[in-house]
Please model this.
Amino acid sequence: MKFLKNLFLLLIVSVIFQQSLMAQTPVVLDKIIAKVDNYYLLKSELEAQLQQYAQSQQPAPPKCQLLESLVVGKLMLAKAEIDSVTVEDKRIEGELTSRMEQMEQQFGSTKNIVEAYGKTISSLKDELRSAIKEQLTTRKMQEKITGEVKVTPKEVRRFFEEIPKDSLPYLPSEVEVGQIVRMAKTTKAQKDELYKRLLDYKKRVENGEKFEDLAKLYSEDLGSGKRGGDLGFAKRGQMVAPFEAAALKMKPNQMSDVVESEFGYHLIKLLETRGQEYHALHILLRPDYQRLDVTEPTRFLDSVRVLIQRDTLKFEKAAKQFSEDKATQDAGGMLTDPQTRSIRMPLDGSMESGLYFTIDTMKVGTISAPMAYRTEDGRSAMRILYYKTKHAPHFANLEDDFQRLSNYTLNRKKNTAIEKWFAKAKNDVFIYIVDEYKECNVMKSNER
Model:
């Protein structure tokens, strides 16, 4: 299928981008352009994809290719229903919680969110919950189809040799950059206030109020909060260590003292244990991340920076020992390109803007002074950057770009697997495309 050439990269519509569309006045009224069993594809979804490319300043694939990728996505949802492929509510609610927290950090308060979107938090969450469920279900089906696909070095070399020499991609400057991150600390006053509130909730439960009612009212875990703090059954090792240690010390129906974890402060109630599983409720409170104290992290990173500059301590070792960013800590602090997962990142507009402008002022081999940093989940932190290496622009070759070429080869094999799946699965469901898009030949899966 010629329009499936880049399907693997196009299947999922970004929920973050969908959030931004919710806040805008729609230019195009929704119109059904395709139906896949009980799932409808709207014209606004196709336009959203095109707009996403425009905003990212990347060339958009042909409209028919985007249409086909969206139809395949709807087909995955329909087949997931038929094949009983589901995503746990807990995972959906966890993702929703993360999205809402990011939005609250972005807008400053829930009141500002309501004003920006013109919708109540409840209705906004319902819309996002539906979009997130579809996204995670589609991803799970995609993993089911392509999960066993692997590539060998021989296949990578064959793929590279098939590229005409005059068509080799010219790669931009690439850099290798590391970071050491230290989280901002909760002030004593903030910590005392959160402890006081949670201990007050504990006392209220002991005096007869229901734990579930207080969780619904006060818990800042938006996912479990609406369920009365219910986290369901968790396997040992699934929760963060402080939470699990506290939960497993208790007997059924007991409550913990205040438990501090990387997510905030918890009041936990154990309901029951069942073999290697346990069932708990919790009330979570978080400090105001925008008011945290960065004095100690700044001082600490300054000291680490001096040791590295004096060659008393290697950056990679310092990152593994001291960084509080779990995503990069084990890799010696090295950042990776989100698409290729390579430590060689293009030095262009695709890079995080704060990182790009900082690196642009640094020399290779140097370490930055501590600077403010906002984590993906909105927490305040400080970090130092290590500008390790810069690779000059060049035509792709096996020696320097094996990982990138391996990813291309793997994606091509995954596309092929999805094409074969689509050719078979399209016969299992009803698919209708409106006449306006008939020329796209979405259903002619034998075209290459």
In short: The radius of gyration is 25 Å. The domain at 188-286 is CATH 3.10.50.40 (Chitinase A; domain 3).
